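HUMAN: Can I see a protein plus its fold?

ASSISTANT:
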Amino acid sequence: MSIQWYPGHMHKAQKEVREIFNQVDVFIEVLDARLPFSSENPMIAQIRQDKPTIKILNKTDLADPLVTEAWQAYFETQFNVKTLAFNAQQGDKREQMISLIKKMVPQKGDSTRVIQALIIGIPNVGKSTLINNIMGRTIAKTGNEPAVTKNQQRIKLEEHITLIDTPGMLWPNIENPNSGYRLAISGGIKETAFELPDVASYAAEYLLKTYPQHLKTRFELTEIPRTDMELLDVIGRKRGCLRGGGMVDLDKVSRILVVEYRDHLIGDISLETPEMMHAERLEVERLNELKELKRLAKEEDKQRRRTRHKRNQK
């Protein structure tokens, strides 16, 4: 299954960011620490080009701390950007953020000129919560649903730093199907864009493989099920998600697994690692090459048929 969700206001937001590009001194890209690759909009990299960039790994209190460290090292060594780990319970990041912004723009950092810092990210990644936290008061509207922020707004961080907040932006085509599933599991895509049992099945398979002890503890399992459907069946029976005939209600148990993951009830869990993303990127590239070869072969076949048709008409 391919999960896609790209409302019209996201296209508008992308256009507005491109229009103010020349005003921006530093990009602050907010990522979900549980899925830093899948929550990284590839269009943002195209927009920001070589502008100084800070990647905020948000919601670190929900992620596997060792995996978060690996992601920070990966971004800083491979992409020459600065990273900052953050979660909503921390209140000590304001000065660290201000200092980092000034270091990224040294030509303005020690002057009276205003630094324009664009804060950007996908829906429901926690941009508004981050802004409210570093400002020490409610500035930006927050919510548990993606796409709460709809319009661009400018916020004075301090005398010489202005934050430009933007609506969450996905991209029109999520090429890696695994990224689509992870975004759905974490709440980055509205539920109208996917079938919940399908997403829960993906989550169950991943958790069984990577965090089986977390599942055993949370759902009081006597033994680890072998498959995703066995896990959902066991959880459903334990939680009383039964229909007539003693069958497990797949919709109900799927919601339990996904919601309890999002609510951090299963534990500190990351959905991807740098190594996983390297392998998946190679696979996406391979599939794209195959698609291109098929497209070229189809075009060549059409051209041959056109040539034959012209010859036959003479």
About this structure: The beta strands are 26-32, 53-58, 82-85, 115-121, 153-158, 161-165. The radius of gyration is 23 Å. The domain at 195-262 is CATH 1.10.1580.10 (Conserved Hypothetical Protein Ylqf; Chain: A; domain 2).
